[in-house]
Amino acid sequence: MFFYKKKYSIEPNGIITRKSYSNIALIKYWGKHNNKIQIPLNSSISYTLGSKVYTETRLIYHIRKKKNISIRVFLSGKEKKSFVPKILEFFHRISFYCSYLKHFNFIIETYNSFPHSSGIASSASSMSALSLCIMEIEKKLGYSLKKDFFFRKASFLARLGSGSACRSIYPGLVVWGYHQSIKGSNNLYAIRYPYKIHPIFTKIVDTILIIDENPKKILSSKGHQLMNKHPYAKERFKYANKNMDRLISILKIGDFQEFGELIEHEALNLHAMIMTSIPYFLCMKPNTIHVIHNVWDFRIQSKKNIYFTLDAGANIHLLYPIKEKKSILKWIYSDLFFYSKKIIESYCFNN
Ligand code: PMV
């Protein structure tokens, strides 16, 4: 379906810039089929974040004279030779669907507004931004692409770079992976959440506490792989799919407490899988635990709707309704600042 088979004329060079935002999963993707490329073992849903948490990528392409491909990658102006093998593998994977890539050499200049490999999904926003740039090349080759196809294929390509990246192509609530209750959901690319949601979920605050800026102890590719022999994997996949059904009804009804309890449970489920894989890992840091306990205590005392979620790292996302922003943010800065290296204020939108 995504195979590029039209005749095209080559532009000798060009520059494309695209921006993509990171996403935070509510129902987590953790585990993929090991004999197929990036096919998830359960469906997932995320909010694409609204501000301050993005990757901006400039893709410069030149016609290739020699046979071998040359790719140079720069992060915030500094050349990153260590990034090249992953990008080369990505280009290799997608070459069947984007045969035009073989004509070019590339310079990829990328800027992240947040720390790389810190548990904030930089691979999601960067692979998403790069895939959008590639689709812009496809568009420039003279093939008139329908808007739906453009984004669907961008999501399909991004998935081949990093699973969760396929969700960053779209704003708002985004689903990836087949789920029987979600029309159009599938394993090959993400779709926007297709149902109406309660207004409380159209704009919520996500305050991200950076607890640890160092690269993660466990790479997600390794973590997914460990799910193939994980003693609790089967139950986890069933459970994630059940949680998706629960979330569908919560999003409709608008029960923030139920929503919060579900996302906290999902986050702890993900970490439970990481902690019980063989070999086992622990991604949370002492300050992650301090923050979680503080959030729980504050919630009981203040009766405010503030809940956390985590990626496969030590950093914490605190989610709460926009109308409670002022008082909650004040509390975060007064009581949680001490535990974090940095605080990033972002939003989850779904219009
Ligand atoms: O996209 P990957 O392969 O880096 O996997 C990321 C998985 C989690 O961020 C932990 C969960 C998710 O669904 O985003």
Quick description:
The protein has helices at 84-94, 122-140, 147-161, 165-168, 220-226, 233-253, 256-275, 286-302, 325-336; strands spanning 13-21, 23-27, 44-48, 54-63, 71-75, 78-79, 104-112, 172-176, 191-192, 203-210, 307-310, 316-321, 342-349. By secondary structure, it is an alpha+beta fold.
Number-wise, the strands total 13
Gyration radius from CA atoms, angstroms: 20 Å
Distance between the termini: 29 Å
- CATH class of the largest domain, named Alpha Beta
Please state the overall shape, judged from the principal axes of the Cα atoms: globular
* Helix-and-strand structural type: alpha+beta
Can you tell me about this structure?
The chain has 351 residues and is an alpha+beta fold. The protein has 2 domains: 13-192, Ribosomal Protein S5, domain 2 (2-Layer Sandwich), CATH 3.30.230; 199-349, Alpha-Beta Plaits (2-Layer Sandwich), CATH 3.30.70.890. 36% of the residues lie in helices and 22% in strands. It has 9 helices and 13 strands. It has helices at 84-94, 122-140, 147-161, 165-168, 220-226, 233-253, 256-275, 286-302, 325-336, and strands spanning 13-21, 23-27, 44-48, 54-63, 71-75, 78-79, 104-112, 172-176, 191-192, 203-210, 307-310, 316-321, 342-349. The strands form 3 sheets. A 5-stranded mixed sheet has the order 1-4-7-5-6, covered by helices on one side. It has a 4-stranded antiparallel sheet with strand order 2-3-8-9. Strands 11-12-10-13 form a 4-stranded antiparallel sheet. α2 packs across α3 (147-161). The radius of gyration is 20 Å and the shape is globular. The model has no long low-confidence stretch (mean pLDDT 93). Bound molecules: (3R)-3-hydroxy-3-methyl-5-(phosphonooxy)pentanoic acid. The site of (3R)-3-hydroxy-3-methyl-5-(phosphonooxy)pentanoic acid (PMV) has 16 residues, from α2 and α5.
